[in-house]
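Subgroup meeting minutes
Present: P.N., E.W., G.H.
Scribe: E.W.

1. P.N. recapped why we're keeping a running log of single-chain structure predictions: easier to compare across weeks, and new members can see raw inputs and outputs side by side.
2. G.H. added today's entry (291 aa).
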Amino acid sequence: MTPVPFDDRDGTIWLDGSFVPWREARLHVLSHGLHYGGAVFEGVRVYGGRPFKSVEHAERLRDSAREMNYELPYAEAELDAVTREIVRREGIEDGYVRPVAWRGSEQLGVSGAGTFVHVAVAAWEWPHVFADGAQEHGIRLKTSRWRRPAPDTAPVRAKAASLYAIGTLARDEAEAAGYDDALLLDHRGRLAEATGANLFLVVDGELHTPVPDGFLDGITRRTVIALAGELGLTVRVRPIEPAELALADEVFLTGTAYEVQPVSAVDDRAYEVGKTTRRLAEAYGRLVREG
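Output recorded in log:
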């Protein structure tokens, strides 16, 4: 079935302070954010009609904008209220919200000074990232030739559109090779993350996850670490070399869209979807749906 393009749908999108018809939520082709990669965005999951951790996502959107050297014209409480209202208007039960901010078209030099900051929030139904069965059986990752940049070469603390070009290149190559997603190393050659999710290894019943010094310390990552503590699991945040994948009994990813996503293979190494991953996935499911 041919998917419906995102620019040709019924509904409403919040844009610069007003709810507008979906097809009219446009930006100009000469917008600074389009040409110079300065857009920042968030992804908020909706469960049972309730956005999960909407305020935390609004706070991170603010922080990302500041990393890109501009301020949002709306406070976090306003963005949280807009998120909840757009979910209500669109009747979203199990879906996704995309807040996004970018610089406008007042000037088109490399400098963004003097540009107007636009903000939009859209929502749609979206139950799963991967095909049916992926949560049960896991997904396959291919180690990418692309790497996450060093902190002194890119705004790695921002959820910035420009940084996702790396993920797009890596994901496209992985899918073309028959995998579901890509595993990226950092600039030092250590394990980093997938294209849109944080990485965890289960080694002898303990969780090991890379230090987030060159990629986002995800909201879901932090949530799962807290859940692991409640379940009595030890979590070790440390530099991890690729060779240590051979020591792992289980591997999983975490992210707003991914949730707790088991991994069944990295390159030619297979993993079982084990009890630790399942315990955390079940605990996360209870938290987001029951509170």
